[in-house]
Each structure stands twice: as structure tokens, then as C-alpha cells.
Amino acid sequence: MNHDAFIVQPGSKISLKKDYNTAFTANFQEKEDAKLKLERDIERLAKYQDILYAQNTYALLVIFQAMDAAGKDSTIKHVMSGVNPQGCQVFSFKQPSSEELDHDYLWRSFKALPERGRIGIFNRSYYEEVLVARVHPELLEKQQLPEYVKANNIWKQRFKEINNFEKYLVDNGIIVLKFFLNVSKEEQKRRFMRRIELPEKNWKFSASDVKERGFWDKYMHVYEDAFRHTSTQWAPWYIIPADRKWFTRMAVADIICSKLKELKLKYPTVTEEHKQDILKAKDILEAEE
Prior knowledge:
alpha/beta; five-stranded parallel beta sheet
């Protein structure tokens, strides 16, 4: 699948409403066709992850950002369903703890980075610090920052810091994939209503979700600005249509598989010495009665 339509070109000024169709499904008109492709990609991803783990050279960091009810949890659940749990780790970044607030805003993300050979998933991420903190500037007061930091165009400074951080990761073999699941305001309302009306989904609903919905336009603005300043050649943003969950999952899986394929992963080469050790071990096992 061609991914160009999803990528935010570095430095480009975009409009999520005008430039990205939340109901886009590419050439997939039938849900079942997309599900079949997803199943194939889940198998591909499992194989790539196995080689990634064995090679132990690269790591993959997958970041998900979205408005509430866009489908982050279900996308992670479906796309990663075939991956060996030993080679994958998921972190959900909630409201910072008192310990985390006593450190810089990237500290908790550094701690959660995937090891070589593994896939790390950030369900929300350090991007909250240029999104939620910008919509709710009172959150900055809890970060105990020096006054000159807050006064010196803090958002521009953080964009620069994030870009440098991601460049550092990529330069050290940690590939960064960033997905924004782009759900429409109308579809979000429908999903909220479903969570309210179905008892088995009540647990997923929070009154704060509706409160945040009141800041929709502000969130769209800060997201667009963040994409403009942090979509780079080494870590571009992918805007994934999220009104049709079946397409969202399929698109994310396809992009992850394509990125892993680009790495030209290979199982480690067995040395001649190791081969001899294997043969000796075989002889010992065969000699057992």
C-alpha cells in the first residue's frame, strides 16, 4: 500500500479537517478484504519481530497519539496480536507522578525506551507535553520550571528538543514510527454514546472525555502545529484515518511491516566455531542411551 498520502511532509502546514479524510479506506471497499490483509501482515510482523529479536541490533519505537475513542488500544491489541510478548513492551503514559514531575519531561520516556531487538509501544507519549500541556497551560505550573523557560517560547524549544531526541534515537538504531489516529468529531460522539449505552462498555467511559471534547478545536490546532514542527525525515508523522477501525488497523500494520522490511533484517550468522560446538553437542546427545 502506498503510504505517501498519510505522511506529513517536514515543515508543511496542514489542516486535519481539509487535508485528511477520516473515513478514507484507499482501495479497500470491503471490510473483509482489509481483515484478510491484516491477518497476513500480523504473520509477517511476527516473523520480522523474531528476526529483530535474534539479530539484536535495532529496536523499534511505535508512538500512538489521538483524541479519545480514536482506537489506540484496539489498534495495538489487533496489530500486535501475533508478536512474541518477550519481544514487545507497551507503555501507557498517564498523568505524571510526583517523581516524574521532579525530572525533565523526557525522563520517563527515556526509562521506557525499547531494548535492542524489541518493539516498544508508547500509548500516548512525550508529545503530550506539546499537546495537552498547551491546551491546558496550567499543567506547566506543576512542572516546577524556571520562569525563563516558560517565558522563552517554550513550545518552539520543546519541538526542537523532541526532534533532537528522535534523531539521537534513530542514529543509535532505535527506529521511530509515529501514528496519529485521525477520528472525526462525529465518529467520536458515536463511540462515546456506545460506551454510555452498552453496559459492558461503561467502564471505558469517563466524564472527563466529554469535557476534553469541548477543547476539540484547540486540540486540532496544537496537533497541526506539532506535526508541522516535528515531522522529520528521520521520524515523520503518519496521519491514519480512524473512522473505520478495520482500515486503521490494516494501515498501521502495513506501515510497521514495511519499515521492518526496509531494515533488511537477518538472523545472526553462525560462526564456524559455533557450528563445531553444535556438532559436538549433537554427538553427545546421540551417544546417550
